[in-house]
Design the sequence.
């Protein structure tokens, strides 16, 4: 009986491999969209340890998808530009869930809070002290910009002179120190680093930043990434990553936590209401409430 040649054995081996089921063991190339809260080079540096960790623990490869600015990011989000995962603030998270069918995976354990910092001479004053004054903030529709506008919503004309020049939230603080602005809107964890600057106001807490997955991603891959994120705090070499994100750990996220927060985007150009969402009931007339108060003993 003739022995099987090397070439024949290779063909048989390939045929056997082809019969094996393809599963999560096959490495995928996944795209992760992040908000443009850093210049591109700095974003690559900040997120590289996290991407390396996710690749090491899940066996998949991850690449950042970077928008030039918040205008481009918001446009890509509305157009449902192809990405596999995203890491967003609450208003973008809910928009992806409601409009693009994304699935929440994990969120920072800490809620998101923004703080309005000011020059030392503003100590003890309220937010009205910054009306008409130069105030640094990342551009619209970042959550910080939306929350800053909400602070002055009782009189949209009487607002700070918002300077959307910073390339990152930390740059806004540096503009304060340089005397280029009188105020700066920054994430709460960043404000705590600069306790020597007075905080004129803090926003209400919102659900923390969250990772979401495209509905096209296999369930086993989503589960693997969720598990990796929830174990991230157990890696001592990744402490700096969590610290930069203002978090101590990641926890499971649910759509219910973020429901309704996409409405924060309703005041920005390009927003459209999701026809599948219920129309909110109109608020009660203030006059009627006042009348009821007058009738009460």
Sequence:
């Amino acid at each position: 009986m003739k022995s099987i040649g090397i070439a024949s054995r290779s063909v048989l081996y390939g045929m056997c491999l082809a019969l094996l089921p393809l599963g999560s063991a096959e490495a995928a190339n996944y795209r992760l969209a992040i908000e443009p809260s850093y210049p591109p080079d700095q974003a690559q540096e900040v997120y590289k340890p996290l991407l390396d960790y996710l690749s090491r623990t899940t066996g998949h490869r991850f690449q950042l998808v970077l928008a030039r600015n918040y205008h481009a990011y918001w446009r890509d989000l509305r157009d449902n530009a192809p990405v596999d995962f995203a890491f967003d603030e609450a208003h973008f998270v809910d928009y992806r869930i409601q409009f693009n069918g994304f699935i929440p995976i994990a969120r920072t354990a800490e809620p998101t809070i923004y703080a309005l910092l000011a020059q030392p001479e503003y100590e003890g004053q309220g937010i009205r002290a910054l009306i008409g004054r130069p105030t640094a903030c990342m551009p619209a529709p970042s959550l910080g910009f939306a929350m800053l506008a909400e602070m002055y919503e009782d009189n949209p004309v009487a607002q700070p002179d918002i300077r959307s020049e910073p390339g990152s939230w930390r740059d806004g603080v540096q503009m304060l120190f340089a005397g280029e602005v009188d105020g700066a809107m920054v994430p709460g964890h960043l404000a705590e680093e600069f306790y020597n600057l007075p905080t004129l106001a803090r926003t209400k807490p919102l659900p923390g930043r969250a990772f979401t997955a495209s509905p096209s991603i296999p369930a086993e891959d989503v589960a693997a990434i969720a598990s990796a994120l929830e174990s991230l705090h157990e890696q001592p070499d990744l402490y700096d990553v969590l610290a930069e994100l203002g978090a101590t750990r990641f926890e499971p996220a649910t759509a219910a936590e973020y429901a309704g927060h996409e409405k924060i985007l309703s005041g920005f150009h390009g927003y459209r209401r999701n026809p599948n969402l219920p129309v909110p009931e109109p608020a009660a007339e203030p006059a009627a409430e006042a009348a009821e108060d007058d009738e009460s003993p």
In short: Residues 1-24, 282-297 have pLDDT under 50 and may be disordered. Residues 114-202 form a domain with the D-Maltodextrin-Binding Protein; domain 2 fold (CATH 3.40.190.10). The two ends are 108 Å apart (CA to CA).
